[in-house]
């Protein structure tokens, strides 16, 4: 066992497995202590290479990430530059623990743990989550060295004792939690003997617990005069005598009954050996205070002068959540928000959408129209998607997607192959699924102006414009498009008004008198019926309806639907 100080302000660590919170806490502690260099030299994360960005005060730093290096405690100890291994893991096999202990002793190295939260040298270096949050570290005055060496089996109780010691002394110089496994890599007496050789440590506080015989090695060291500094000790677990049989407590070495020594016996042995041992845990704080005050009165120590630690910058996300700051957004979305506990579509939480059994049509109404439309409207949207999902392999979009797939391209490239080949979704236009918006636009304009079907069609003819939504390469007056019939039937049964659809049918009647293939097609049916949906639902103002028709919402419905078929 090393006989001096384990850590200093220049000590650096390799952190095995990337865990953001404890690493960031180590770096925050470094900044709090005024270290010039971060204590985390690198992160060992199997399968990863590169850098991990973390904060050192207000500065963002990049810490190297290595995929391999010291992948076990033993291989870490065998590295010549590594002097201390802190093993956080619990339940290390006893045979492995014994090998680690033997190797460490033979090579003058130190093992802290297994099952430890680590250790800390106040104002210099800390391991992992030792001492907890930054608020607790500041409250315990661990940002600067004190005069007390502390060692415990329990990590949780260590945090409690750091606080206790800070209240009644000038604070911790070094604190170690050796861990609660049956075979700890280093013992209570190992660290107390070390503290005895560190000039800055003026007194020692020890917290033991029932189970094992580790405390008796400390008793022997006290009896042999190896420790010449005041030792204040307490062994917890006085309830052990109440159990008639052996009981396993939280730590592997903490058992009651059987051959295990009671906490009372250990406390008495320590008292007989010269340690200051109070009569109860409640009196522990007072005993520590009294021992420290005697040192001060005797002139053996001068309380460390208090300093003001620097302010640790608060993470923006934490500050926003607590309402301390407000930050301007870089991108504003009026349809969705993922800043809360769950994403919201137009203000509706995702869980609510699922719990209410809403469908794709409802999601489209929220994301496209920013409101919850009545169920008959969202059902109509779903029917449009189903009916337009595919129309065979010979239409231009499907043909080009197939050709692209046969060329060996990936699925996404096939779907949007129009980038270089004028194919795929970019072929959706006036002659292939892209006439919905134009049909809605022209039908609405003609109906709102009060034009008769004759006036409307003839005015379009004079302008040299085909009537959008009218005409089909295959369908005829005596062989109507089944999709159009299904949409019209649904609308007549569910919509409060179908005035635009009826106007489109009147236009069809006139165009069929000119040619048998000038039927109302699916683009015209969807375009006119969407006008009825927008106007009849009572949920849109006239300017909103004009905007929806103008900016191309409705062609988006065909693009969404046909993507299903193109992917298939």
From TrEMBL:
Gene3D superfamilies assigned to the protein according to its UniProt record, in alphabetical order: Citrate Synthase, domain 1 (1.10.580.10), Cytochrome P450-Terp, domain 2 (1.10.230.10), NAD(P)-binding Rossmann-like Domain (3.40.50.720), Succinyl-CoA synthetase domains (3.40.50.261)
Leader peptide range in chain numbering: none
Organism (species): Anisodus tanguticus
Protein name (Swiss-Prot/TrEMBL): ATP citrate synthase
Main location: cytoplasm
EC class: transferase
Recorded coiled-coil stretches: none
Reactions accelerated catalytically: oxaloacetate + acetyl-CoA + ADP + phosphate = citrate + ATP + CoA
A Pfam family per the record: Ligase_CoA
EC number, as in UniProt: 2.3.3.8
PANTHER family assigned to the protein according to its UniProt record, in alphabetical order: ATP-CITRATE SYNTHASE (PTHR23118:SF42)
């Amino acid at each position: 066992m090393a006989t001096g100080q384990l850590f200093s302000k220049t000590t650096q660590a390799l952190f095995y497995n990337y865990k953001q919170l404890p690493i960031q806490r180590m770096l925050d502690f470094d900044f709090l202590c005024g270290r010039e260099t971060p204590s985390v030299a690198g992160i060992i994360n199997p399968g990863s290479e590169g850098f991990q960005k973390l904060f050192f005060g207000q500065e963002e730093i990049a810490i190297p990430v290595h995929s391999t290096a010291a992948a076990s405690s033993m291989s870490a100890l065998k590295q010549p530059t590594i002097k201390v291994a802190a093993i956080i893991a619990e339940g290390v096999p006893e045979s492995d623990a014994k090998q680690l202990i033997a190797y460490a002793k033979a090579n003058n190295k130190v093992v802290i743990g297994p099952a430890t939260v680590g250790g800390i040298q106040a104002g210099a270096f800390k391991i992992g989550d030792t001492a907890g949050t930054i608020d607790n570290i500041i409250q315990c005055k661990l940002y600067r060295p004190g005069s007390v060496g502390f060692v415990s089996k329990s990590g949780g109780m260590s945090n409690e004792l750091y606080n206790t010691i800070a209240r009644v002394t000038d604070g911790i110089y070094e604190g170690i939690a050796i861990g609660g496994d049956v075979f700890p890599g280093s013992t209570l007496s190992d660290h107390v003997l070390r503290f005895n050789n560190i000039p800055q440590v003026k007194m020692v506080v020890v917290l033991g617990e029932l189970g094992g015989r580790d405390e008796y090695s400390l008793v022997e060291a006290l009896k042999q005069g190896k420790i010449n500094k005041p030792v204040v000790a307490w062994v917890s677990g006085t309830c052990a005598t109440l159990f008639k049989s052996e009981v396993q407590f939280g730590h592997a070495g903490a058992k009651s009954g059987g051959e295990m020594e009671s906490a009372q016996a250990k406390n008495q042995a320590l008292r007989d050996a010269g340690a200051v041992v109070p009569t109860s845990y409640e009196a522990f704080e007072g005993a520590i205070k009294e021992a420290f005050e005697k040192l001060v009165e005797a002139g053996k120590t001068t309380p460390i002068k208090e300093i003001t630690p620097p302010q640790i910058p608060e993470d923006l996300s934490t500050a926003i959540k607590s309402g301390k700051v407000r930050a301007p957004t870089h991108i504003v979305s009026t349809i969705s928000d993922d800043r809360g506990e769950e994403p919201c579509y137009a203000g509706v939480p995702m869980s609510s959408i699922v719990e209410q059994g809403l469908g794709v049509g409802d999601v489209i109404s929220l994301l496209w129209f920013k409101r919850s439309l009545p169920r008959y409207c969202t059902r109509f949207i779903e029917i449009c998607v189903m009916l337009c999902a595919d129309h065979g392999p010979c239409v231009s979009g499907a043909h080009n997607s197939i050709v692209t797939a046969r060329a060996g391209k990936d699925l996404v490239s096939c779907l949007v192959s129009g980038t270089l080949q004028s194919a795929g979704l970019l072929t959706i236009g006036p002659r292939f699924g892209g006439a919905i918006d134009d049909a809605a636009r022209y039908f609405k304009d003609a109906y709102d102006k009060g034009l008769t079907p004759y006036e409307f069609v003839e005015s379009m003819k004079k302008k040299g414009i085909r009537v959008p939504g009218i005409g089909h390469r295959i369908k005829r007056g005596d062989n109507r498009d089944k999709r159009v019939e299904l949409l019209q039937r649904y609308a007549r049964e569910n919509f409060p008004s179908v005035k635009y659809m009826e106007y489109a049918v009147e236009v069809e009647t006139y165009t069929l008198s000119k040619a048998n293939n000038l039927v109302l097609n699916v683009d015209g049916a969807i375009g006119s019926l969407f006008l009825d949906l927008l106007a009849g639902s009572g949920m849109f103002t006239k300017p909103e309806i004009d905007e929806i028709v103008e900016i191309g919402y409705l062609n988006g419905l065909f693009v969404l639907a046909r993507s299903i078929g193109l992917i298939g």
